[in-house]
Every structure is written in structure tokens, then in C-alpha cells.
Specification:
The chain is built from 13 helices and ten strands. By secondary structure, the protein is an alpha/beta fold. The protein folds into two domains: about 180 residues, 3-Layer(aba) Sandwich (Rossmann fold); about 120 residues, N-(1-d-carboxylethyl)-l-norvaline Dehydrogenase, domain 2.
Length: about 325
């Protein structure tokens, strides 16, 4: 019996990693990859497949099926969630008929509270935790642009069986996905959150890309201040992050494509709904709970929440 994997969200993360899975398992006798998409994205992928454009080549991959109809999608063994954090509940509820009590769910969101929110919807399911590092974005429906060479997928669980975890790791490795099954997944996710929260907040507040921040002293200082505040919060929460987490985050920034920016910044520029609450507001709310001062985060949030760039409801 085939293992059926659903990819929910065909943006940069879902489109890229889902595309690698679809390419490997298109004619597989053991795995079926299903893209859950709608509208123009669904039409384009059904006709032309998903195209992944990298710095050196192009990949075109076709899933077993692409649909947003639960009857067409069918029951899933694994569900990889890669929508934006503000779509967690709505997107999962839209396909709840495809999620049985045996469906294993792997969230790959930017925030750190996804697992808690998903467990409220599906308390009986095996729920993994995960995060990715990749610079990828939608060029147009069904076409994903991936830049740079840094791409990693981390996942793990304190509750799921080792058999389940090893099976998924084998599926990833066969598809040439650089994936790591780790025990300390909470800390790994927070390491990513420290990096992406500070970056998203800084790029959106300053309206600058990575290169601008690196070459501008005032911008670097603001980014550094954000890193200091969020790492202090993590320490107070009792998370065992690397002692040099700030330096690691800066090095990651330096290795990132300098003309790239955060997805939240791109959403602000395009006047789209964005992840301000998950990436900036969440830090402020947690800081209040733990009585940690985060004045830079508060300054950034105050400007952005009332920004003219915010889409109207």
C-alpha cells in the first residue's frame, strides 16, 4: 500500500520541498505526493507541473494529484503544512476529511506556536515539529524561485514513534532533501525563530533587504538589538540555545543572498496579509508573560501595526 503525502501550501517552502518530493516519487510504487492547492496555482500545476528555478538550473515536477477537493485528495498518511501562520486553522479545517487519526502532521511554519494550535484541532494525531532554512519565493503561480545554497529541513518529536520518524527521514533522503532528524527539536525551532523573527521585523520596519541592513550601521544596530531581546526572552523561558546564538544568526544573515529579504517584508510591500502577529507580536506577548523588556520589538510592532502598508480588512 502506498504512502500518501500531502503538501498543504504551495509557496516558497511547500513549493520547493514539495517539488523535490514530487520529482522523486512521480512514478513511484511506494509513495504518492499530493499538492493541495486552489485557483490559478492549481490550474497551472495540473497543466505544467511545479517549476523550481534555482541559480543554476530548473526543475519541473508533477504530483500524483493537485486539488483542493477533499474527495479528490483522499486520505493522507503524512501531511506537511507550509502555509502562512495566519492560515493554520482555516487551511487545515478545509481538508479535515483527508486527515484520519493515523495521519502524521509535520508543520513547517515560521512561528513557534504552530504545534500547539494544530494539536487543538487534531488532539489524537501524531504531531511532529519542524522548521526549514531556505530562500525561496513564488515568481508566479506554480513557479518557485530558490536562491542561494543554504537549504536545510529539521524535524523531530518527543511523542511520535521512532518508526514514523525514520520512515519520513528515509522519504526525505531519497528525494535528496537535506533533512535532519533531531532530538532537541524545540531548541532547533527556536534557533530558527530567533533568526527569522529578528530578520522579518528588521526588514519590514526598515523597508530594507539583507544587503542594506549589513552595510548600514544604524540598521545593523537595530537588527542586533532585536536579536538581543529575543535571545534574552528565550533564556528566561528556559530554552537551551547555543551561547553564540547571536553570532550564529549574524553569520546566517551574511551567508544569505544580499538582495533577498524576508517573506513578511515582501508581503508588506505587496499589501498582502502578513505574519506580523506570529513573528513580532508573539515575542511581545511572550515577553509580557515572562516580564522581559523588549523595547525594540515594541517600537517595530507599533510602527508596523499602524503602517499604511497594512492591507485593509
Amino acid at each position: 500500500m502506498k504512502t500518501r503525502i500531502g503538501i498543504l501550501g504551495m509557496g516558497g517552502v511547500g513549493g520547493y520541498f514539495g517539488g523535490l518530493l514530487a520529482k522523486e516519487y512521480y512514478k513511484s510504487d511506494s509513495v504518492e505526493v499530493v499538492f493541495i492547492a486552489r485557483g490559478e496555482t492549481q490550474k497551472v500545476i495540473a497543466k505544467n507541473g511545479v517549476k523550481i528555478v534555482t541559480d543554476s538550473d530548473e526543475i519541473i515536477a508533477f504530483p500524483f494529484v493537485v486539488s483542493n477537493d477533499s474527495e479528490v485528495i483522499g486520505k493522507l498518511d503524512f501531511l506537511i503544512c507550509a502555509t502562512k501562520t495566519y492560515d493554520i486553522e482555516e487551511s487545515l479545517n478545509s481538508i479535515k476529511k483527508c486527515i484520519t487519526k493515523n495521519t502524521v502532521i509535520l508543520p513547517l511554519y515560521n512561528g513557534v506556536d504552530a504545534s500547539e494550535r494544530i494539536s487543538e484541532l487534531f488532539p489524537e494525531n501524531e504531531l511532529l515539529q519542524g522548521c526549514v532554512y531556505v530562500v525561496a519565493m513564488i515568481l508566479s503561480p506554480g513557479i518557485i524561485k530558490k536562491t542561494g545554497v543554504y537549504e536545510k529541513l529539521f524535524f523531530g518529536s518527543t511523542m511520535a514513534s521512532l518508526t514514523t520518524l525514520n520512515k519520513l527521514q528515509s522519504i526525505f533522503k531519497t528525494a535528496s532533501i537535506e533533512s535532519y532528524l533531531v532530538e532537541n527539536i524545540d531548541e532547533v525551532i527556536w534557533e530558527k525563530f530567533v533568526f527569522i523573527s529578528a530578520l522579518a521585523s528588521a526588514t519590514s520596519y526598515l523597508n530594507e533587504n539583507i544587503g542594506d541592513i549589513l552595510k548600514n550601521k544604524a540598521s545593523r544596530e537595530l537588527y542586533f538589538s532585536l536579536l538581543n531581546e529575543i535571545t534574552l526572552l528565550a533564556a528566561v523561558k528556559g530554552l537551551n540555545l547555543p551561547e553564540d546564538i547571536i553570532m550564529q544568526s549574524i553569520l546566517k544573515l551574511e551567508k544569505s543572498p544580499h538582495d533577498a529579504t524576508s517573506s513578511m517584508h515582501r508581503d508588506f510591500i505587496a499589501l498582502r496579509k502578513n505574519e506580523l502577529e506570529s513573528l513580532t507580536g508573539f515575542v511581545i506577548n511572550e515577553a509580557q508573560k515572562y516580564e522581559v523588556d523588549v523595547p525594540t520589538y515594541e517600537m517595530v510592532y507599533k510602527k508596523l501595526v499602524f503602517s499604511d502598508l497594512l492591507p485593509s480588512e
